[in-house]
Amino acid sequence: MKKTLTLAVFVLSLTGCATVPATTENLVTQLDGPLAQLQLDTRQLQLRLERLTENKECEQDNQCKVIGVGARPCGGPDQYLLYSTLHTDEKMLSYTNDRYQKLKKQQNEKLGMMSTCQMLMPPASACVAQKCSIGQPAS
Q1: How far is the C-alpha of 96 from the C-alpha of 66, rounded, in Å?
Q2: What 3 state SS string does the chain have?
Q3: What is the spatial distance between Cα 135 and Cα 97, in angstroms, rounded to a whole number?
Q4: Radius of gyration in angstroms for the set of CA atoms belonging to the chain, rounded to a whole number
Q5: Model confidence pLDDT, tens digit, residues 9-33
Q6: Of 106, 120, 25, which Cα lies nearest the Cα of 78?
């Protein structure tokens, strides 16, 4: 019993020795409530964009499009998503993307993100073997 009590006191005293960062330190990895919620909301919208564009079946090249999503700190999209107009609700995709870009801009500002300011060019899309893909249209 005495050994158990001594061990418990020792363990409790060690937990009090954890280092706590000074309040003046700016830790990007330390999430506050609003920032954590912002990151969660951003991730959920990103997953929604992926779900909206997952069916890439097509019959001809003009049914394949790309949309710039996200926001780089210096402007422009983070990436481009390929989608088929046959199976994608373009209004919902546009609305979801607008919300996603807005949240990505807020996230970049809150985290003090920086980038190379290199603009991404939209890739060419084509219907190859009844599936939208990145590349040149078949002649």
Answers
A1: 15
A2: CHHHHHHHHHHHHHHCCCCCCCCCCCCCCCCCHHHHHHHHHHHHHHHHHHHHCCCCECCCHHHEEEEEECCCCCCCCCEEEEEECCCCCHHHHHHHHHHHHHHHHHHHHHHCCCCCCCCCCCCCEEEECCEEEECCCCC
A3: 23
A4: 24
A5: 444 444 444 444 454 444 455 556 7
A6: 120
